[in-house]
Amino acid sequence: MSDPSSRRRRARGLVVIAAAVAVLIIAAGAGYAVIGVRQHQQAAGLRPSGIPASVSTSLANLMQLSPVPVTNAPGFTLTDQGGHAMSLASLRGRVVVLDFMDPHCTDICPIVSQEFTDAYRDLGASAPQVVFLAVNVNRYHLQVADVAAFSSEQRLTKIPAWHFLTGSYPSLRAVWQAYQIEVNAPGPDADVIHSSQMYFIDPQGRERFLASPMADHTASGSSYLPASQLASWGHGIALVASHLGSDHR
Which helix (H) or strand (E) holds 173? Predict the structure, then answer.
């Protein structure tokens, strides 16, 4: 017959094992549930609720487009590629498409840049109502010259209302946190790993939609997106921006 202290130790061990198993089961179940919902939506072509009628279900799914609670977008004041101070509040009355970019990025940021130039072209007569913004996520390359060089290289300067914003590390970090952007910058010569999120802000300065830009990669690791998807992304950005602009008129 075992002594009482031995029984207590075994009992505690069983409780710990049972708790660990329960956590694993819950985590696995949650993971399978999320994956299952996404796969089911894609397979069934289900339409996310609240998407503008002009945006097809397939396009909304490609962009991972979703409405967000209608709240005021967090304000900030930073400096653009021309050295001019710009506040988000100063853009009231226009639609703002906001993304977060690394001026030394060779992965997804050039792809989003192409989508922005395509969107500007697709906006046509509505283009003056829309502003394209990016906030710098590279703490090691904070100079105006850094964001100006990227803007020129990616031909974003063709967009009259394009602003690549930078500032001090504390001021940028505050914006990242406000928009829930995770940033990991290992060093000045390393690729910055950051959240890829695109916010659509209406003329009243309120967050309305969120999209998740994406990229494919070749076997060698180079990023790309098929031409058809690039064009679709640009068109989708234009459609959402136009929708928000028409709501304001």
Answer: helix 169-178
